[in-house]
Specification:
The complex is a heterodimer.
Chain A (H helix, E strand, L loop, with lengths): L13 H25 L31 H37 L1 H16 L2 H11 L4 H28 L2 H8 L4 H37 L11 H7 L1 H5 L4 H28 L10
Helix pairs in contact in A: 1-2, 1-10, 2-3, 2-5, 2-7, 2-10, 3-5, 4-5, 5-7, 7-8, 7-10, 8-10
Chain B lengths: L1 E11 L2 E11 L4 E5 L6 H8 L7 E6 L2 E2 L9 H6 E4 L3 H4 L6 H11 L6 H12 L3 H4 L8 H13 L5 E5 L7 H18 L2 E6 L2 H7 L2 E4 H4 L13
Helix pairs in contact in B: 4-5, 4-7, 5-7, 7-8
The chains are: A mainly alpha, B alpha/beta.
Chain lengths: 285, 229
């Protein structure tokens, strides 16, 4: 049947990039799940006799300034980062889709009012606003997720609204109204299915960004409490030893901030090319 | 059936596309509206189908003045009028199969149970095979898709059909087939038709009465002004 022809116009390297992104991401997720499970050692265990050891077979990533195993702590931090990234991106997408959906579907004064609110939101630097949100709450994963979600729904709201404005004037929406459909029916049957792929792509594109924000907030000492393993807090506490020539406490957590975000970005870019084959291929960060 | 009185309508404030247009379609009558491209025929068709709010004037359906437009129009008034648009590609949701496209009005008005039988009947009259019904709009030709759009317009047994350049994109044999389907429906139900087109030959053969755009409008319209492009 002809229903796959338009999908076969893949640009040359897309399958490779998709496979590479998926493999790396799967490996990282597996590591985050399996390492703490296979090595049920307390990642908080301090061993001052083994502090700042360079990578060896016993400690493949070395140890930090109080002798904690960096492989174990990186895996724990990775868990937190991936979880926070995905949940925050999903929450931001739900908020953004709802706001943009209301503005786009209702139009008129609702639209104007909501979009001025969106303008107001985007006029505040979002890291700053995120810092205010976490500062108001206790340190922990929940507030970090809330902070990232509350500052990142704006672009999704804009995308969803713009898409809806264009969809609303299609003759098939006219035909549905003429056929007796209610507003809800038009929204659920015709508008939502057209908007969801865009919103889903926006959510995936937001995951790397959310991971970075989680790390940034933790690095600034505002995210997770200092003792909890988070990639951001680990990079922060490693700053002193980096100046003393100990590179491993910075390198490994830093690497695991970058690698999963690049993998997700590669997947998102491939998805975007599929949605819009004529768009320019570009890194999706 | 349909009476348009002194309709003025447009898309931007202060720039009407059509001004003071009056037109009447009697019960069971087929009226052809002939006008050049860009004169505002389609806008008038959308006003008549309660899909676009005019800035001035009255629309009467069965003597009943229309107050709401689009979703605000009472469902009974909306569904009394069936609409077929010019471009079938734009008028069918790309995510639905042709079967779902045709069944949609029945499902939307709570007559889900009637849908399978009604769709089968409409597919037979409009010449759509079972195989075509399972396809999506991008998998069929313009003519096949327009057949489905006509079937959708007939699904709720409207008493007035508004065909806005229904056959402009189609070849002669499909045009003849679609007009034939409509005529059979009229003969069966006594429905009225407002056919909008720029093709005098088609309208003269199809309609009881053909009106020219210039005869039903007073004042300047979009076609009198220099084109914005």
């Amino acid at each position: 049947m002809a229903d796959t022809t338009w999908r076969t116009r893949a640009s040359g390297t897309r399958p490779v990039r998709t496979a590479a992104g998926a493999t790396v991401l799967a490996a990282v997720v597996l590591a985050a799940v399996l390492v703490p499970w296979l090595a049920p050692v307390d990642d908080q265990a301090v061993d001052l006799g083994a502090k700042l050891l360079p990578p060896t077979w016993a400690h493949p990533f070395g140890t930090d300034e109080v002798g904690r195993d960096l492989l174990l702590r990186t895996a724990h931090g990775l868990r937190v980062s991936l979880l926070a990234g995905v949940v925050a991106a999903l929450a931001a997408t739900v908020v953004g889709t709802t706001v943009g959906g209301l503005a786009g579907a209702l139009g008129g004064w609702t639209d104007r009012l909501v979009m001025r609110g969106v303008d107001l939101f985007s006029s505040v630097p979002h890291l700053l606003f995120g810092i205010v949100v976490v500062a108001l709450l206790r340190p922990g994963t929940g507030p970090v997720i809330a902070s990232v979600a509350l500052t990142h729904w704006v672009s999704t709201a804009r995308i969803v609204r713009a898409e809806l404005l264009s969809l609303r004037t299609r003759p098939y929406v006219d035909a549905a109204i003429s056929g007796g459909a209610t507003r809800l029916r038009v929204a659920v049957r015709h508008l939502l299915p057209a908007v969801l792929p865009q919103a889903g792509l926006a959510a995936v594109l937001m995951v790397p960004h959310a991971i970075w924000h989680e790390s940034a907030l933790s690095f600034l000492g505002l995210g997770l409490p200092a003792h909890a393993a988070s990639l951001g807090t680990m990079v922060n506490s490693a700053r002193g030893s980096l100046l003393a020539g100990q590179w491993w406490p910075t390198l490994f957590p830093g690497l695991f901030i970058i690698v999963p975000t690049l993998a997700v970005a590669a997947l998102a870019a491939a998805w975007r090319e599929r949605l819009d084959p004529r768009g320019r291929p570009e890194p999706a960060l | 059936m349909l009476e348009l009185r002194d309709i003025t309508a447009g898309y931007e404030p202060g720039r009407p596309v059509l001004r003071d247009v009056s037109l009447t379609v009697g019960d069971g009558e087929a009226v052809g509206l002939l006008g050049p491209s860009g004169c505002g025929k389609s806008t008038l068709a959308r006003v008549a189908a309660l899909l676009h709010r005019p800035t001035a004037g009255t629309v009467l359906l069965d003597g009943e003045p229309a107050h709401g437009w689009r979703h605000r129009a009472p469902r009974g008034q909306r569904t009394a009028v069936g609409v077929v648009f010019q471009q079938p590609r734009q008028s069918a949701d790309p995510r639905l199969t042709l079967h779902d496209v045709i069944a949609e009005p029945l499902r939307a008005t709570g007559r889900r149970a009637e849908a399978p039988a009604r769709v089968a009947g409409l597919a037979a009259t409009t010449g759509l095979t079972d195989d075509l019904l399972t396809r999506r709009p991008h998998q069929v030709s313009d003519g096949q898709l327009q057949r489905a759009c006509l079937a959708r317009a007939l699904a709720l047994r409207p008493r007035l059909l508004i065909c806005d350049e229904m056959t402009a994109m189609l070849d002669a044999s499909t045009t003849a087939a679609l007009v034939g389907v409509l005529e059979a429906y009229r003969a069966e139900t006594g429905a009225a038709v407002l056919a909008v087109s720029h093709d005098p030959v088609l309208l003269n053969r199809w309609c009881d009465r053909v009106v020219r755009w210039d005869d039903i409008t007073r004042g300047t319209t979009a076609s009198d002004r220099p084109h914005p492009l």
